Amino acid sequence: MANVSLKRVQISKANTTMVIATAIAAFALTFTIIAGRALLNKRSYQAKVINGKEKAVDQLEANIKATNTLANSYKAFVSTSSNVLGGNPAGTGDRDGDNAKIVLDALPSQYDFPALASSLEKIALDNGYKINSITGTDDEILQKENKESINPEPLAIPFQIAVTTNLVGAKNLLNILERSIRPIKIQTVNASGNNGELDLVITAETYYQPQKSLNIETKVVQ
After folding, report:
1. Cα 186 vs. chain centroid, distance in angstroms?
2. Superfamily name with CATH number, domain 110-208
3. I want to staple 204 with a disulfide (CB 3.0 to 4.6 A). Which of 35, 56, 82, 186 is the partner?
4. What is the side-by-side strand order in the sheet with 155-165?
């Protein structure tokens, strides 16, 4: 009877040892699988980070080269002996100024109707016209909603100018507006009176173009 009890104790101890060993093996296997998966995920993440950094470096190097090319092109553009209008880059006349200034005057980056009205007034007075009115809609507050964008488009500024002149003066004013540094699209021309004195009303529009924004992206690697 004692031998039977001893055998049972030995069997029980063996079973307990086997259970413990099996549990340890199962734990070790589970830990190995989880740790291996974590290492694989970390390796995949690191590979994505490295790939993203390499792309960013390549893009940065391309941008630096493009910046140098742009800077050289700009210097050549503004250092010509005469501007695109045939004027003096260092002068102060209506057709003078360097090419960069002319481009900015031709297509401003901000809506400014008072400045446009002053420009039209100067054109008319310098050419001897009697100004009756210069009108338009000064909606600067509304136009502030047209912020910078990646691909900005020219936006119209409608206006109307009324002068008193004669037939020859009317033709000359139309030519002057068409040759203006700022692009002006004439829509309607109304004249009343006689050849000696005409009341001329021109409805037209010019343009401005909001600034181009830089597309700087921040990417989260997952």
Report:
1. 29
2. Ribosomal protein S6/Translation elongation factor EF1B (3.30.70.60)
3. 186
4. 130-136, 155-165, 198-208, 185-193
